[in-house]
Amino acid sequence: MNLNKAYWDKKYTHDKTVWDIGYISPPLRAYIDQLTDKEIKILIPGAGNGYEVDYLYDKGFTNIHVIDISAKPLQNIKTRIPTFPDGQLVQMDFFDLESPRFDLILEQTFFCSLEPSHRKAYAMKMHGLLNEKGKLVGLLFDRTFKNGSPPFGGNEGEYRSLFTPYLSIKVLEPAYNSIKPRKGNELFFIFEK
Ligand SMILES: C[S@@+](CC[C@H](N)C(=O)[O-])C[C@H]1O[C@@H](n2cnc3c(N)ncnc32)[C@H](O)[C@@H]1O
């Protein structure tokens, strides 16, 4: 299966976005709520409709960089937040992002949308994109899925082995505040460079 731009464009044009919960997820909201420095440089890769962008922006964070391989969800964000800078909504492949470096990268159902064979490249890329002490924070599925298409699942042990060579695992535990359909099937994590 080729999980390229055309694949994701089709999902958006046909409204086949089953992963889209329509609002910021409670675990990301709770994490953002305890951030105090509004100047930090934040990346949201594979953002999709990125409801966490609205939440961050409303709270006064402005150094937010949003990327997705598909343009449609980025246009949706722009429609919702007309004042959001165009240059910070970028249609591109995450793996082509060369610079700059970020203080915080937020993950939600982007990792699981990639071919499992790309996981090592994802971990290495995240290491390269973070400032020293920068953090990759978010959610990872703690379950398997049957089909041979996204989402691709995993478990804690697998994630520990994958990320330990690149990032320090500060938190990797069952999320207590998942949305109902994901309850018990999601790990909240904080990995630090
Ligand atoms: C399952 S969706 C998740 C969207 C969003 N994070 C959410 O939780 O609703 C995966 C997203 O990653 C994007 N994507 C997939 N591969 C990508 C890549 N290589 N670079 C950038 N974005 C990518 C897709 O277009 C899609 O919007």
UniProtKB/TrEMBL annotation:
Domain of life: Bacteria
Keywords assigned by UniProt, alphabetized: Methyltransferase, Phosphoprotein, S-adenosyl-L-methionine, Transferase
GO biological process: methylation
Alphabetical list of PROSITE patterns matching this protein: SAM_MT_TPMT (PS51585)
Record GO terms (molecular function): methyltransferase activity
Keyword Protein transport: no
Classification via Pfam families: TPMT
InterPro entries tied to this protein: SAM-dependent_MTases_sf, TPMT
Protein name: Methyltransferase domain-containing protein
